[in-house]
Design the sequence.
């Protein structure tokens, strides 16, 4: 176990007014019937206005943690001022989805991330250390206009890094289209005061890649600065990622209700409750949060808690998920969860309708295919269900044994943030998806990975059964594997769409390998008829002496 010591760390540094160990997280009443679904019709989630990237060092320094501190704390400070900014966790989630590593980004890649997240402005910059003095320099890039602001600069002693950062946050907020929602005095008074050693340890925890190192560093932070709630939230995230759900819940429960990070901590604590099977507590927590502000992630997780709790007084999970989809109509995860909820509520026809639409958007999603087959079967559409199950076998053979519906499976998708990032929907035809799979399979074959290439080519052939290149690739893959009959069948499919001397010659060679010389000569003769000058075909077509 990573965290035998974490229980002590999470309990030892409890800020004044926080709960004792084992007490439910703030906003989580004792288990009881779930609250009704929020009645207000939610409006679509607003665009973020700012994306903050880690600052880069202007010169050589050992204080490499400062860039990460700015990327983590500046969005929090801006949020406290009422300026919507992308949080560090959401930025990293987007980079992962876009397959962009957590490394310094080029200008073009930074803009790509900002556009994907709907951020209108990008905050970049540098920091410099001269002795005990630190200088932070920020610039704002207008993503649409590609214009860069004059630098915003603030400097001071290293131990005042948080104050320097907050002064810059105020300047960034003033540069926006709306005034800050707090006065400067209110803002500065409400921001955490963190000793330099604790701030340095927190920054190093942000940068660390090893969970054990992160936990140890965060323990030091909470001991030195028990009121710095960002450390507890980060600890909760680390523990959730390590599937240490009970310690995660206990750590997050100690963020006071009055904290600016209380809502973030409650949301994450709810994830821990869902993973622990404490569904009624999770339902109560997320219901309260949804009443305060119905965000897509909150409504989604509330619905999943209701679905699993199955209390007779609970609202319908599908109704809650429809509210979530009203906020994020393009969300694939929300649409899947709605279909899953409809199936669990015995509306198999409604579930099948949802899932059929989803297969056009995510044709390779294995869970979508499996659950669609289940929904069709439950709706009495057996022929369609059988046809869909062939897709499951072709696209996700690992699920072949799940022919009968099993709603105890945890296929539903817990959201890890209130406004989770998803790649934009891209509706492609089966033929377009198949073409991409074929290119991937051919590349894998060329690289010598025949087994993976065969799996990808098989999926491509299911989606586009008339693709000649795919059948040729499958024939060559089966031949390499030593499965002559399957290879012959695939070659025949390719020849059915277009006769070709080269392919006929490949078939002749395969037949000869299979110990069928007469058939090989007949096939070579057909190749020779198509290409009379082909010497290889002439030799194979010659009768034995």
Sequence:
């Amino acid at each position: 176990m990573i965290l035998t010591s974490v229980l002590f760390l999470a309990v030892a540094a409890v800020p004044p007014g926080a709960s004792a160990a084992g007490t439910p997280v703030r906003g989580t009443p004792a288990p009881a019937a779930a609250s009704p679904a929020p009645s207000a019709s939610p409006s679509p989630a607003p665009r973020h206005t700012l994306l903050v990237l880690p600052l880069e060092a202007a010169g050589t320094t050992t204080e490499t943690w400062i860039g990460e501190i700015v990327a983590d704390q500046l969005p929090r400070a801006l949020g406290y001022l009422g300026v919507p900014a992308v949080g560090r966790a959401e930025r990293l989630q987007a980079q992962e989805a876009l397959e962009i590593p957590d490394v310094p980004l080029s200008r073009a890649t930074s803009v790509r991330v900002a556009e994907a997240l709907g951020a209108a402005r990008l905050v970049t910059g540098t920091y410099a250390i001269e002795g005990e003095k630190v200088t932070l320099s920020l610039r704002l890039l207008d993503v649409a206009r590609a214009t860069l602001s004059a630098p915003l600069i603030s400097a001071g002693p290293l131990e005042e890094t948080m104050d320097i950062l907050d002064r810059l946050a105020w300047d960034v907020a003033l540069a926006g289209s709306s005034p800050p929602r707090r006065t400067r005095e209110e803002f500065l008074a409400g921001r955490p005061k963190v000793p330099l050693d604790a701030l340095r340890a927190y920054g190093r925890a942000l940068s660390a890649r090893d969970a054990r190192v992160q936990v140890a560093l965060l323990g030091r932070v909470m001991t030195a600065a028990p009121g710095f709630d960002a450390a507890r939230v980060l600890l909760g995230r680390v523990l959730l990622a390590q599937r240490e759900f009970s310690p995660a819940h206990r750590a997050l429960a100690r963020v006071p209700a009055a904290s600016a990070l209380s809502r973030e901590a409650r949301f994450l604590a709810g994830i821990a409750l869902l993973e622990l099977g404490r569904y009624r507590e999770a339902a109560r927590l997320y219901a309260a949060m949804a009443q305060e502000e119905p965000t897509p992630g909150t409504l989604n997780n509330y619905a999943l808690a209701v679905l699993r709790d199955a209390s007779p007084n609970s609202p319908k999970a599908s109704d809650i998920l429809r509210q979530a989809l009203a906020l994020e109509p393009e969300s694939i995860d929300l649409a899947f969860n709605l279909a899953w909820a409809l199936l669990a509520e015995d509306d198999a026809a409604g579930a099948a309708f949802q899932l059929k639409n989803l297969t056009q958007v995510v044709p390779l999603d294995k869970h979508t295919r499996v659950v669609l087959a289940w929904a069709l079967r439950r709706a009495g559409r057996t022929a369609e269900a059988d046809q869909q199950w062939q897709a499951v076998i072709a696209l996700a053979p690992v699920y072949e044994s799940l022919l009968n519906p099993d709603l105890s499976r945890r296929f539903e998708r817990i959201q890890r943030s209130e406004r989770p990032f998803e790649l934009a929907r891209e509706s492609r035809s089966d033929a377009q998806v198949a073409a991409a799979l074929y290119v991937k399979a051919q590349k894998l074959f060329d690289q010598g990975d025949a087994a993976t290439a065969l799996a990808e080519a098989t999926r491509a052939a299911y989606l586009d059964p008339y693709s000649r290149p795919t059948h040729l690739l499958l024939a060559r893959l089966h031949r390499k594997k030593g499965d002559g009959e399957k290879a012959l069948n695939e070659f025949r499919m390719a020849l059915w769409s277009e006769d070709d001397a080269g392919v006929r010659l490949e078939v002749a060679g395969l037949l000869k390998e299979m110990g069928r010389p007469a058939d090989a000569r007949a096939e070579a003769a057909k190749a020779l008829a198509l290409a009379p000058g082909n010497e290889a075909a002439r030799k194979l077509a010659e009768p034995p002496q």
About this structure: The two ends are 74 Å apart (CA to CA). The first strand starts at residue 50 and ends at 52.
